[in-house]
Amino acid sequence: MQVPVELFGIARARAGIAATTASGNCVGDVLQDLASRFPGLAETCIDGRKVRSGYTLNLNGERFISAPETLLKENDVLLLLSMDAGG
Amino acid sequence: MGIPGYHGQFLRVDVGTGGGLSVPLEENFLRRTIGGSGLGVGLLLRENSAGMQALSAAAPLVFAFSPLVGSPLTTSAKFAVVSKSPLTERINDSLASSGFALAGRRTGHDAIMLVGRAAEPSIVVIDDGHVRLEAADEIWGMTPGDAQQRLKQRFGSDYQTAVIGSAGERGVHYATISHDGRHAGRGGSGAVMGSKNIKAICVRGTRRCDWAQPERLVELAREISRKSFGPATAKYRELGTATNLLTFNRLNVLPVRNFQQGSFEGAERISPEQLGEVRERTRASCAACTIGCEHLYSLQDGKGSVRLEYENLFALGPLCGISDPEVVLAASRRCDELGIDTISAGGTIAFAMECAELGYLDAPWLRFGDGSGLLRALDLIGGDSQDPGNREYPGNREHPGDAELGRLLRLGSRRMAIEVGHNSIRFAPQVKGLEIPGYDPRGLQTMALGFAVGSRGADHNRSGAYEVDFSSAVDRRNPGAGAALLAIETEDRAALMDSLILCKFLRGIFVDFFEESAEILRLVTGWDVNADELRATARDLVTRKKRYNILAGWTPDEDTLPERILRQPLPEDSLSSLSAERLAEMIRVYNLGRGWTAEGWLTENEGSAEIHC
Fold first, then answer.
1. What share of chain B is helix, strand, coil (3-state, %, to 5)?
2. Quick one: which of B24, B328, B368, B498 could link to B37 by a disulfide (CB 3.0–4.6 Å)?
3. pTM of the prediction?
């Protein structure tokens, strides 16, 4: 399944784009795909099938998730962003 | 006295007489307050300032340093400004950075307290502990930046200065105290300083503190500095906090048009991602900081650049319906020139915009989205001083109602709402009188709790509860009462950071903050402090602020949110809905989790937080 992914902050800066699609049926698969295509993300935001410390995932602009085995459904959108807000 | 890391005394300056007195600080007191915010609150309790009017001559204003100031630890050049807030009439502690902290500590004191009121506009000059007052005529009315420049010429560059702008001089309830372009921003400490007829405090000194284990401290400082260059701080270093804007917009938690909406059609236009494409951007950092979080954007009028953070971007942008980046930058610069808190300024003006649109105020020029109206409102808040001896400021009056509107704006949104009437308090964007930062509470409900119970009002720095909302630990739109316990943890960590003092942007490098802080303190002071003691100390720091507020007249009904937040879901997301009942339950669990009564009063068990003279 191709999953839309939106990138914010450092993730966007590292990938060089604001949005893309990635392949996978669960969160872990999607992250692996992103990391393989965007080395900058692998270096900073993604560690294998999960996000690195300081980064977080949000599903559909609603709830935050972390488990790599979280299944994704059609029309789900994954957001990759910094965990800390502040400012 | 001989405690490594401390001078063991604070300087009490009576600006009415010009006299200064070095007052000893006991080791037990310092160990339980540490420094910064904790030390300042402890000193205010000892001065019984809770029962005083915030702008009275007797009300103390404390500049508190910490045992880390002057050490090789990154981000440690900070100071706290602590007083009773004229905006909230509750405790207010705000932080600022850079050379003033270093020079202030070198006067030979762990804190400097101002009491009394000078007969004429004055400058407090502290030279290695010797105090004198000098006339402030030539700088009264100046912007903080210009005043600082003139003071450098007058006294020399080895003095560091903290100054107020014209807003502080005329008692704007959210006036700031500024140093080197940074501000002790929230709560109106600038008005407290102005009420004492003090325009500036200039400090220099030669007295340094010893450290208990200097070699190991230097090694640890190097490790921390190395980590501070890494991924944990990348966001601040490379993008700045303004990058929050598009994230919050996407999550529908960006406050728009006085919290009427959670997303903004103009967000992309004012985002740093777009600004960085078309404007020159430079970075700066405080003294003794390796992160360098300050991002300054050039204005198109060629008159320099302005620092952009998420809070001034949201408050002077979407909160007022403004999508013109030049207006946001110009408004930010104006706030800096006047010396006012951008969050409170934006919140108060947004409230006024809504009142004007509803016909509650006679201000046909003041509308959401109108940049010239925003800038004019700022001018009404600050005014222009032509004559240092003349306390009347003509301002920029083009409409018969302007003078009265300026007076109301200077009070902040809560007092303004009380005077405007029409039950407008229901949408005044404040808690305890302090305007709400850029997190819509309906979509970040652990943060909603943090705002409601915050000792200085709605505050994103004293509570880090948004971190709970940004995690998978809770559902941000219905976190459950248990989230309150997580919120407590964030408050305790913040209280300790504000007392050590270390920059919160450094927090991501710590694995176990209390354990690592204990090591830092052991190396600086030689105390056998451990993580458990610091956890207890942190809780006491928060409880002490609650004690102050109770003495100042706090009642449980203050711990709430505006009626708009509790009755109107976000239009973009019906699940972002927070009821009074849900908030009340979270507050109840929070209070019990702190060891207080369910309503929030202190119990006998919390007597340990009290510090005896």
1. 45, 15, 45
2. B498
3. 0.95
